[in-house]
Amino acid sequence: MKKMLVLMMVFILALGATTGCSQKPQEVSKDPNKKAILVVSFGTSYADTRKLTIEATEKRFAEEFPDYDIVRAFTAQTIINILKERDKIDVYNVKEALDYLKSQKYSEVIIQPLHIMNGAEYDELLAQVAAYEGDFDKLKVGKPLLTTTEDYLEVVKALKAQLPELKDDEAVVFMGHGTHHFANATYSELEYVLHDLGHKNVFVGTVEGYPGLEQVMNRLKENNIKKVTLMPFMLVAGDHATNDMAGDEDDSWKTVLKKAGYEVEVYLHGLGENKGIQDIYLKHAHEAIKGQEEAHEE
């Protein structure tokens, strides 16, 4: 009898332990009044251009969406580390930002990237966000700058505000970053739209893709260009713009063009300074809120 009682007690204890382990943890309640827009960019370690581009764009978001808290995230961990060690500035990466918003019980999160194209960084962003499906009542991702045909038309309209009046023998050359991703075709499409809208002497090249400076110089020669104004087609006027485009090194675009006999001027301002470009990012965020763009909902 004692042996039977002991066995029954062991069984009851084991059953209780099993039942306890199978219970689901209580879901953390979300605050329906807490909404955020997570503004995501590659980032930059250059303080001056960060203020004029990323911070200026974030300020526009704060003005446009007063019911949302504006949160910053960079995708470049190297830049995040530099800012932390050198300047004592803390910036979230995307995962850290989403973890923070989740811990603070935000119910709605709109993620608006300041990326130029639907390239590798955007693909990675979507993959990271997918891991948080179900953690928010509403989780949506806006589109990069150049996504639809309408975007290209609006970007060219915004760029017109910074283009100088060009004589027949003068040109503007935009420097893009370039990518191994098939979205690199974005640059060629942009040049096509520029020409189609009448900006015949405006050309687009890339640092790390195609077309490069060599192809751009072929177009300059074909069009009998003598003077070139270099402009970055990047959100910020950071390392590539300062050094690869406008630097004094032998392989910078400015130096190569000067050695080839061109008169060269430099416009050292990132796209993030252009209010027309900022407007397009704001529009994409509005579309994401309305559910017209990439959506991840519970």
Automatic annotation (TrEMBL):
- Gene3D superfamilies named in the record: 3.40.50.1400
Does the record bear Disulfide bond in its keywords? no
State any GO BP term from the record: anaerobic cobalamin biosynthetic process
Quick one: signal sequence residues?
Answer: 1-19
The active site lies at H177
Keywords tagged on the record: Cobalt, Metal-binding, Signal
GO molecular function: any one? sirohydrochlorin cobaltochelatase activity
Binding annotation for Co(2+): H177, E208, H240
Q: Which Pfam families match?
A: CbiK
Q: Supply the name of the protein.
A: Sirohydrochlorin cobaltochelatase
- Which species is listed as the source? Caminicella sporogenes DSM 14501
